[in-house]
Specification:
154 residues, 7-stranded antiparallel beta sheet, two-stranded antiparallel ribbon, 9 strands
Length: 154
């Protein structure tokens, strides 16, 4: 399936409608790719030239039970997961465009003034796109893990 590119308020409204405002969903996993690297001859490319974050969301109520959102050229990722003694359910989320950047937050009514006081995960990026993923419900990882490590809880 191809990505749906978000550019306009209409595109934002479509995603929020299709994914039911992220109500009764959760962040299952995410992946960050900076663009920086060290080559085999140990030369470093020291620039965050890509800055993409991909997030897998799963929903109990959407017609698209699993989606991937790709945040491109991110400016900030504020990952604040709740501890294991609380639920990770997203009840209402926000997706807005302010000053040329897109902001997604796990709370409704996002405002820039809230980012330092509101607890929760939020991202800002220059571009966003999303797509539905088929056969991706459940606990199995969507993104590969080259080390084949299982998550541990201590």
């Amino acid at each position: 399936m191809e990505y749906n590119i978000i550019e306009t308020q209409e595109d934002i409204n479509l995603l929020m409608r299709e994914y039911k405002g992220f109500h009764d969903s959760c962040i299952k996993e995410l992946s960050y790719y900076s663009g920086g690297y060290v080559s085999a001859d140990r030369a470093m490319y020291p620039f965050n030239s890509v800055r993409n974050v991909s997030v897998i969301f799963q929903s109990q109520i959407s017609e698209h039970p699993t989606i991937e959102m790709r945040f491109e050229l991110i400016h900030r990722l504020n990952l604040q997961p709740r501890l294991e003694n609380y639920d990770c359910i997203i009840y209402d989320a926000s997706l807005v465009k302010l000053g040329g950047l897109f902001y997604w937050s796990e709370w409704d009514g996002f405002q820039l003034e809230d980012i330092d006081s509101q607890k929760g995960t939020w991202l800002s990026a220059e571009r966003i796109k999303w797509k539905s993923l088929e056969n991706s419900l459940g606990e199995d990882k969507v993104y590969s893990n080259i080390l084949n490590e299982e998550p541990t809880s201590e």
